Amino acid sequence: MKNILLIIFVALFSLQAGAAAAAEAYTPKVYGKKGYVWDEMTPERVQVLKMGGDVDRGKDSFRGCRGCHKADAAGVREGVYPRLTGQHASVLIKQITEIRAGIRSNPKMLPFVEDPAIAMEEIGDIAAYLSALTSVRENGKGAENMSARGKKLYNDNKCYTCHGKNGEGNAAKAYPVVAAQHYGYLIREMKLIKHGTRGNSNPGMVKAIAKFTEADYEAVADYLARLPDYRTVVVSK
Amino acid sequence: MKYKNNRIGSAVLACGTLVGMLLLSATARADDIPPLEERLQLCAGCHNPDGNSVIPGNPKLSGLDAKYIARQLSDFKEGKRVSEVMASIIPMVDEKEFKPLAAYFSKQKRTDGVPEKADLVAAGKQIFDEGVIGTAAPACAGCHNEDGSGSNKFPRLSGQDPTYVKAQMLNFKNAVRNNDPKAVMQAVAKRLNEQEIEAVAEYIVTLKEAE
């Protein structure tokens, strides 16, 4: 009898402790700080991934984003705002939830993507909507064609390991599509990732582009910007 | 004993009381809430009978989403949106009137407006359509549409009085007006300077409601 009571007490106590731990506020871990883990599954990201997404609802929720990313979600040619069309939903969810959590630093976007501007329930919908879109408008490219040099750098530094031979990324691992992105945006983000200011740098990528010169950034960005939409590439097996 | 039966007596009394109560409540209702046409006269003083105010600084209510109007009215009532004029008017209006008033004004056609400073219109269009890249101010067209027609989420802007728009934008910028449900307008207005706000207001008044 005593044993049973003891078991009940222990069970009750651990339940309470568990609830308290779950209620504890999530503390973001930023690149360069102690305890940073790239691609950490934050509580919100786990929830959003579980909820899935609805394309029609996403179109409606995206309305508030159009001021910068434009009505066709193709961003701005100069690259100040990226193309979101055809990006993997898993990537969009990762980036949005990490910006909301304070892991990826994006003060310009934050007021328009945090509560109450965007509710957690809308994130999956927006991601589903954008991932199904295709860009019609031409993207920004380098002033001259540097894609031969860019391709060599891309391959020599094994960028394809994560971002794919056609810049198609990896939906399952939340590696972004980089093909046909705006030239200016690619350069900016590579630098932000290398310098750690983006907050959610992948340490592997920081190492891969550690020795990039200004000309290297330009060449790789131009190569990727000139790649076709990965969904139009026929992959031979 | 006046009544043969106590039961009938109490039934008559009950009926009498009920009728009396109904009459009383009917008169009380009529005292509190005037018919819509009468109430509209109060609004028309500043906003015109069709909601197309012609007094600089006063907003046009015509063609706004009904829910938006109703929400502004209850925000004025609850002090969530502050306006000296509306603060003196709104206590006279019952909450039950908000919905019919909003429905009335939302159905009125927005009239065209005239800019006060026509030389600012072109600069305003640039900001309205493209935003300001340097400060990351989003384009107004993103939420309010390129023709300023708005939606069920964001109010119609086309033809709106430029003095009013400028004043509201500055109120958002300085967080004097903070009843924007998603705090989005405050975030946008903070990224525009006073000259940009003025130019946008001068462009907005030139936008026309589609036929």
Write up what this structure looks like:
The complex is a heterodimer of chains A (237) and B (211). Chain A is mainly α and 237 residues long. Chain A has a single domain (43-228), classed as Cytochrome Bc1 Complex, Chain D, domain 2. Helix content of chain A is 49%, strand content 0%. Chain A has helices at 2-23, 43-51, 55-61, 66-69, 89-101, 110-113, 120-131, 147-156, 160-163, 183-195, 203-208, 214-226. In chain A, helix 3 (55-61) crosses helix 7 (120-131), helix 5 packs antiparallel against helix 7 and helix 8 (147-156) packs across helix 12 (214-226). Chain A is globular, with a radius of gyration of 21 Å. Chain A starts with a helix and ends in an 11-residue tail after the last helix. The model of chain A is unreliable at 17-23 (pLDDT under 50). By secondary structure, chain B is an all-alpha fold. Chain B folds into three domains: 1-32; 36-106, Cytochrome c-like domain (Cytochrome Bc1 Complex, Chain D, domain 2, Orthogonal Bundle), CATH 1.10.760.10; 118-204, Cytochrome c-like domain (Cytochrome Bc1 Complex, Chain D, domain 2). Chain B has helices at 6-32, 36-47, 66-78, 84-89, 98-106, 121-130, 141-144, 162-173, 184-189, 194-204.
What secondary-structure arrangement, pairings included, does this model have?
The complex is a heterodimer of chains A (237) and B (211).
Chain A: H1 2-23, H2 43-51, H3 55-61, H4 66-69, H5 89-101, H6 110-113, H7 120-131, H8 147-156, H9 160-163, H10 183-195, H11 203-208, H12 214-226
Helix pairs in contact in A: 2-5, 2-7, 3-7, 5-7, 8-12, 10-12
Chain B: H1 6-32, H2 36-47, H3 66-78, H4 84-89, H5 98-106, H6 121-130, H7 141-144, H8 162-173, H9 184-189, H10 194-204
Gist of the model:
The complex is a heterodimer of chains A (237) and B (211). Chain A has twelve helices and no strands.
List keywords for this structure.
heterodimer; A: about 240 residues; Cytochrome Bc1 Complex, Chain D, domain 2; 12 helices; B: mainly alpha; 3 domains; 10 helices
